[in-house]
Design a protein that fits this description.
Helix content: 40-55%
Largest sheet: 6 strands, antiparallel
Number of domains: 2
Shape: elongated
Length: 253
């Protein structure tokens, strides 16, 4: 009898152990939806949003994620307000870190720079000869992508490289370029958002960046020569302002 009962138990069809996903809370659903809307997140960080209108606009999406037919709009509003406060605290901390990096950075400007884009298959043949040019070069940077090599160098070294290579293997040559070198403290390696801050600043002033190169604590921006002075001044003005602001805040404390 006992054996029969054991056989019955062992012979039972196993139940599905996979647990169904739990519906999200209103707060978590609201966060997930907002995270897909960068412009709305920016407004939350800045504290310039109508929480009631925003809650109303996402209520159907929140209800769907929560597995409900409807949700209380006031609950969504409260969740958004708490999330906004959290985002503002993080933003303030990050902006302070970025500001400290930039106020301790210095700038250098190098004119008469060219950018060469070279076939990936050809470059390794001449790499040793090009590397030997480093000692005599005023400026030389080499970067590798999946399909090409890019060489950023001064005009004199550019001419030497062109003598080494067959022009048909050079995919593109950009001349009349300048290099702005931002030399930052070592903390730049650990702090997110510094490069984003710099590129946003130049974009706001309608300055295009041809190339960006990162080399330890140096950030090298390649821009058109006719925009170099304006780009340099834009960055310098911001760095000087951040230094002045830090000094005034220090005195106030």
């Amino acid at each position: 009898m006992i054996l029969k009962e054991m056989i019955k138990v062992e012979g039972k069809t196993p139940t599905n152990s996979t647990q169904p996903e739990k519906p999200l809370s209103v707060a978590e659903a609201s966060r997930q939806i907002i995270n897909t809307k960068p412009s709305v997140m920016d407004c939350l960080k800045q504290g310039v949003v109508n929480f009631s209108a925003l809650a109303e606009s996402i209520k159907d999406q929140v209800a769907a994620l929560c597995g409900r037919k409807s949700v209380n709009v006031d609950s969504i509003k409260m969740a958004l307000m708490r999330y906004a406060e959290e985002l503002r605290r993080k933003r303030q901390t990050l902006e302070q870190q970025v500001s400290k990096i930039l106020e301790r950075s210095i700038l250098e400007l190098k004119n008469d720079v060219a950018v060469l884009t070279i076939s990936h298959s050809l470059f390794p043949i001449y790499i040793d000869k090009i590397v030997k040019l480093v000692e005599s070069s005023r400026f030389l940077q080499v970067t590798q992508s999946t399909s090409v090599f890019t060489v950023v160098t001064d005009l004199k070294t550019k001419s030497k490289i062109l003598e080494l290579l067959d022009k048909k293997n050079i995919l593109e040559i950009l001349e009349d370029q300048s290099a702005i070198i931002i030399i930052s403290p070592p903390q730049i390696i650990e702090v997110p958002g510094v490069i984003s801050y710099i590129t946003d600043l130049l974009a706001e002033n309608n300055i295009n960046i041809t190339q960006i190169i990162s080399c330890y604590t140096d950030t090298i921006l390649i821009v058109k020569r006719n925009e170099a002075l304006r780009a340099y001044k834009t960055l310098e003005d911001r760095i000087l302002f951040l230094r002045k602001l830090a000094s005034q805040l220090g005195e106030a404390l």
